[in-house]
Design a protein that fits this description.
Blueprint (H helix, E strand, L loop, with lengths): L2 E4 L16 E3 L8 E11 L2 E6 L10 E9 L3 E11 L18 E17 L5 E7 L26 E5 L8 E6 L1 H13 L6 H7 L3 E5 L6 E6 L5 E8 L7 E9 L5 E5 L6 H4 L7 E2 L6 E5 L4 E6 L15 E10 L9 H6 E6 L5 E4 L11 E3 L9 E5 L1 H7 L10 E6 L1 H6 L3 E5 L9 E9 L2
Antiparallel strand pairs: 1-3, 2-3, 3-26, 4-16, 4-18, 5-6, 5-12, 6-11, 6-14, 6-15, 7-10, 7-12, 7-13, 8-9, 8-11, 13-14, 17-25, 18-24, 19-23, 19-26, 20-21, 20-24, 22-23
Length: 445
């Protein structure tokens, strides 16, 4: 293990790259002479592995995901979204649902508003279908709906649309639906105008699923899932010489039941086909890469196989660890991914080896990395976590669990509502900026 000794004066010296004699000082005469020094250790091996959550709760995240994204490694990743709509009087929004008995249905559409998330080629035409659910949405026993869950729906679509995506615009997508649906909804509203409720409405109209045609989709798009960004719009008119026309809105309801089903197939990726929350794949078996992948539940574990050897050094008895920094090196980073670095979180390891709580700062905020960005030369970009307090806590009894490490993942909302991804360089080459850097303050007894 390479160790560089650096001068230290009153715990605030400038760190240098060479070794010098410890600074000795003496106050008065016949007093104890003490010496101090700072040592930086930066050659402890760092090991990366990719793990995968068995399932992800995607309900109640406020995001509609729909489309097919082709990943070069994994293949097609498909998302479809399930949701319900209700009657506007139950909402805290100004949307007219009152109808007159004489109104006639002209048409009905589903309105979606882009939330600016996308993945894939948005220059290609997209084909979406809307199906009516034949089975009511239900939460699992723990109060969520998971990414692999599906509910039965009609075999024929209520409506379809071909369009060119505009995810970067504050724009709406309007999907025409079968007029018979609009007539059924209008009849319900006219019959129950004095006693409208979401529960009664959902019993008759159980909900909808939005999906893209797998053969005619080259991107995945995100839309807002709230009562102002997702709703049915019912177009009607009254017969007569004036022919007044109306628009009635039925917005998203039971937002906790709106969820995204995300499916993919790992059988063709041998290294990933068997990974779980308990069994990871070393970066050395996946082309020296470790993965963080929203929507799929991939996350990275960082371990330090030889850190426990440090606890056996007698010099630790006369030292204080003043700084521990974890440097990580993104691989194949492009300009569109810089924002992902801000979304990476570091999680503690539970005693059973599972990911624990997100590590927090002294003020209680979630710990984030300090990013060093180079948008001209992305290969020079890296990010750093200050994990001093956590490592000091682990070393307090001069013992380090061989499985000690951290988990890196997106925040829970990003995991469930995006396909944000980050690959980390897990190689042991000199070019890799990945390292664990420990700074000790040594003193004489």
């Amino acid at each position: 293990m390479r160790v560089s000794h650096i001068c230290f004066f009153f715990l605030a010296a400038i760190l240098c790259g060479c070794e010098v004699d410890p600074f000795s000082f003496q106050i008065g005469e016949d007093l104890v002479v003490t010496s101090t020094k700072v040592t930086v250790v930066d050659t402890i091996s760092v090991q990366l592995s990719t793990y995968k959550k068995d399932s992800i709760v995607t309900s109640g995240m406020g995001t509609i995901l729909a489309g097919v994204y082709h990943d070069e490694l994994i293949g097609d990743i498909t998302a479809r979204s399930y949701f319900q709509v209700g009657v506007a009087e139950q909402k805290e929004v100004s949307m007219d649902v009152e109808v007159d008995d004489s109104e006639i249905c002209d048409s009905v559409s589903l309105i979606l508003q882009y939330n600016q998330f996308y993945a894939g080629d948005t220059l290609q035409e997209q084909l979406y279908h809307i199906y009516e659910l034949t089975e009511e949405l239900e939460e699992d026993e723990d109060g969520g709906i998971y990414n692999f869950t599906g509910f039965a729906h009609s075999s024929e679509p209520l409506g379809s649309i071909r369009f060119y995506p505009r995810p970067g615009k504050n724009d709406e997508l309007e999907i025409p639906l079968n007029k018979e649906l609009g007539e059924d909804i209008l009849e319900y509203l006219q019959t129950n105008s004095s006693d409208l409720s979401d529960d009664d409405f959902v019993e008759l109209f159980k909900g909808f699923v939005l999906e893209a045609s797998g053969s005619e989709s080259s991107s995945m798009l995100g839309f807002g899932a709230s009562d102002t960004t997702l709703f049915l719009k019912l177009y009607t008119h009254e017969p007569g010489p004036l022919n007044p026309q109306y628009e009635h809105f039925l917005p998203l309801t039971n937002s906790n039941l709106q969820y995204n089903q995300i499916t993919y197939d790992l059988s063709n990726v041998a290294a990933f086909d068997s990974i779980t929350e308990k069994k990871g794949a070393l970066a050395s078996s996946t082309d020296d890469l470790a993965y963080i992948y929203g929507g799929l539940g991939f996350y990275t574990k960082v371990t330090f196989p030889y850190l426990e050897n440090l606890t056996g050094e007698s010099e630790l008895m006369n030292s204080i660890m003043v700084n521990v920094l974890l440097y990580l090196d993104p691989a194949d980073l492009d300009n569109d991914q810089y924002g992902v670095l801000e979304d990476i979180r570091i999680y503690e390891t539970e005693s059973n080896g599972d990911p624990g709580e997100i590590m927090v700062e002294e003020n209680g905020s979630e710990m984030t990395a300090t990013s060093v960005l180079d948008q001209i030369y992305p290969d020079n970009t890296f990010f750093v976590f200050d994990i001093t307090d956590y490592v000091n806590f682990e070393l307090a009894d001069y013992y380090m669990d061989p499985e000690f490490g951290f988990y890196l993942d997106l925040s829970s909302s990003k995991v469930a509502s995006t396909l944000e991804q980050l690959k980390l360089d897990g190689s042991q080459t000199a070019d890799n900026k990945m390292r664990l850097e420990l700074t000790f303050f040594y003193y004489d007894q």
